[in-house]
Design goal:
This protein has a seven-stranded mixed β-sheet, with helices on both faces. Strands 1-9 form a two-stranded antiparallel sheet. Helix 1 (13-26) packs across helix 9 (233-243). It is built from eleven helices and eleven strands. Helix 3 links the parallel strand 2 and strand 3 (84-89). By secondary structure, it is an alpha/beta fold. The radius of gyration is 19 Å and the shape is globular.
């Protein structure tokens, strides 16, 4: 039995930062996504945006986080459009401040980009702009935020309404066979604390809104070597990230915590190399929506 009600990790900003920082240290996603943005995004997605090169590109970033991936995207967009306006919608002030700091450091390579900063959720953004003159966006980014949005169908309906004809929405999310998604499905005890929709649920919402989309799988590995002994601080933070549950070890029985660790061990990827690393699947899907 659980010791106390489980709480979603997303509700604890500082703890989420710790867990996500640990995850970033252990995964190759930063390098993989950077290369993906330089290659697939640059070659395949940018050409889908139907806007003349001399016009100003209107970009909307939802849940931008500290901005690392978004800035890499902006650099690619600048190769086609010399003027880009990025409206950043992010509820956490700490993330906005880190994004601003990074943008300042990258100012030379972001010449031509102007920012509008909005500290709010996507629902608040939709509500606050509803009675204003309709502004259309040519490109909308939702990186690892779609599965945390309440009433996703309604949000997608509104985003479809503000996406310009010929525009593109790019969503990035954990795929259903990632270690995170599989673990959350495996343990129904986590379901009440986890605010995370599955890829299938998101695809259902996309189809309900008659949105045209394609998926592109991005292969990412997570090095959990030494993190599945049930003792290390790094492992504790990683498991909280993978279960999307804050302070999991303190709030579940030893038996359940051990079962979660044993399950993660059972889905370790086959490793034929000599380094003996414990690798978990962290694949994500890029969902490309066109209008």
């Amino acid at each position: 039995m659980e010791k106390s009600p489980l709480k979603p990790l997303i509700s604890f900003n500082q703890r989420y930062e710790e867990c996500y920082g640990t995850y970033c240290k252990l995964t190759n996603n930063v390098v993989v996504l950077e290369e993906w943005i330089k290659s697939y995004f640059h070659e395949k997605i940018i050409k889908e945006i139907k806007l003349e090169d001399e016009k100003e590109l209107e970009v909307l970033g939802i849940g931008s986080g500290p901005g690392k991936d978004e800035i890499n995207v902006l650099k690619q967009l600048l190769k086609r459009w010399p003027r880009v306006k990025d409206t950043v919608v992010e509820p956490h002030l700490s993330h906005i401040n880190r994004y601003k700091d990074l943008a300042a450091k990258e100012a030379k390579s972001l010449d031509g980009v102007s920012f509008e900063w909005r500290q709010q959720t996507v629902q608040q953004f939709i509500r606050d702009t509803k009675d204003q003159p309709l502004k259309k966006y040519h490109f909308i980014m939702l990186f690892h935020v779609m599965y945390f949005i309440e009433d996703l169908e309604d949000v997608l309906k509104n985003l479809k309404g503000i996406l310009d004809d010929g525009g593109v929405i790019l969503g990035m999310l954990e795929c259903d066979n990632s270690c995170m998604a599989m673990t959350i499905r495996k343990f129904p005890q986590l379901k009440n604390s986890v605010q995370a929709a599955s890829t299938k649920e998101i695809e259902k919402a996309l189809k309900s809104n008659q949105l045209n989309y394609v998926k592109h799988r991005i292969h990412i590995n997570l090095d959990a070597t030494g993190c599945l002994d049930g003792e290390s601080k790094e492992g504790e933070l990683l498991i909280e990230l993978l279960t999307q549950t804050a302070y999991l070890k303190k709030n579940v029985s030893k038996s359940l915590y051990s079962k979660i660790i044993e399950y993660l061990k059972s889905i370790i990827l086959p490793n034929n190399s000599e380094d003996g690393k414990t690798l978990l699947r962290g694949d994500c899907d890029a969902i490309i929506i066109t209008k």
